[in-house]
Design a protein that fits this description.
CATH superfamily of one domain: Metallo-beta-lactamase domain
Structural class: alpha/beta
Distance between the termini: 17 Å
CATH class of one domain: Alpha Beta
Number of strands: 13
Bound molecules: zinc ion
Strand order of the largest sheet: 1-2-3-4-5-6-7
Number of helices: 16
Largest sheet: 7 strands, mixed
CATH architecture of one domain: 4-Layer Sandwich
Shape: globular
Radius of gyration: 24 Å
Strand content: 5-15%
Length: about 475
Amino acid sequence: MSDRSRWIRPRNLALAVLALLVGAGGVVWSSEDAGRTVRLRAAEAAGEAVTRIAQRAQVQERAADFIATPVEVRKIGGFDFLYQATGVGNTHLIATSEGHVVFDTGLSIQAAKQRRLLEEAAPEAPVTHVILSHSHQDHAGGAPFWSDEGTEIVAHREYPEEQRYLKELEDYLHFRNRTLFPWMPEEPSRSGLLEFGNVVPTRLVPNHEPYRFEQGGIRFEVLPTPGAEGADNLCLWLPDQKVLFSGDTFGPIFPQFPNVFTMRGEKVRKPVEYIATLERLIALEPEFVVPSHQEPAAGREEIRAALVKMRDAVRHVHDATVAGMNAGKSVHELMAEIELPPELALSQAHGRVSWAVKSIWEYYATWFHFDTTTELYPVPAAEVYPELTELAGADALAERARAHVEAGRPVHALHLLNIALGGEPLHRPALEARREALQRLHDEAEAGLGNSYEMDWLLYRLRLTQEALDATEG
Ligand SMILES: [Zn+2]
């Protein structure tokens, strides 16, 4: 048994405890007469429990690691009026003499503590504005905790539509999210402050017109930055301080190759719009970039160089994909051959070039790849796998797959094993070969690009394979 499978188990236990906690909390939050303080305490306790469980179970799953970030407040950029509460998603408070402006609100289960700590740190004042970088749960989930009477809730004009589809597809998305971020509760919250999808912005910002206001002598510019993590992305720019609160516009690592596609399964992210967004942000010449995940970055030259590199990298991948499509190449050929040139090398720990290629391809061409007739009909290849297994024999397929793994071709092995296991789902040698192929891919991913989504996916498949192997015992 590998190291990996040893630490998977305590986490499952942690999840069961978490599901109970969040479930129990839901009763308190949905109760009509429960006082606000009680509800906030319950929410804070549930959030604390998640963080402690994640830390104790030593969950080491990259993007999923964010849950282990403690909720703490610090000042940022050397400014005495800019506060950040850390967490899965960071919440920012800009204190002015005429009230607080909040940018992003983090995850619902951490929002109560984030708000309490921020208000303890900052001078007492009402919250005049809550600005949401986009509709994702880790940025807008905490909004109900900040929505006081009269608070202006500022979002992109596309926010209601993005929130609508994320809400309508909540079960589908929750399954995918939970597969990749196993600390999430089993079910999404269906009521109370923790429920997703009830944010009603009071001001919508269209793409062609930033929203500017001044408060307590500080100038604020809410900039539409579509194409990043969705059509409803916003940044907050403080022109006098040259601070850019970037939300998820660059993703959680700055700089990186951005996630112009997400495995979590959302609407397509538009590459050309994203390049235009980067152009506009480069022109601002920010001196501080404060993303809503992880650490801020400082230094005008460094930030400019990073932004230019990200823009050029996305443009390179986009243009190479378009050129390949025009040259009649297949999506698989392009996924294999398009790379970033050395001068544009960027972390692919989150966004990944080969997946961006596929995503850009399908953004333009959609799902019909013009390859085979069978693409047009609802009969997948898997329907004939049992026949192929019968003809070739599951033993022979498993043995050939193992040879592929040993020769360094784990994906070829997985194709053969899809056939073998399609015919005989609990064929032990085929399952063992699949475990080896997945483990090899995982080890290669870890030693190579370190893409967190790839590794999380492979760990998920390893868990399923191990469960199937366990089922064959006895
Ligand atoms: Zn995020």
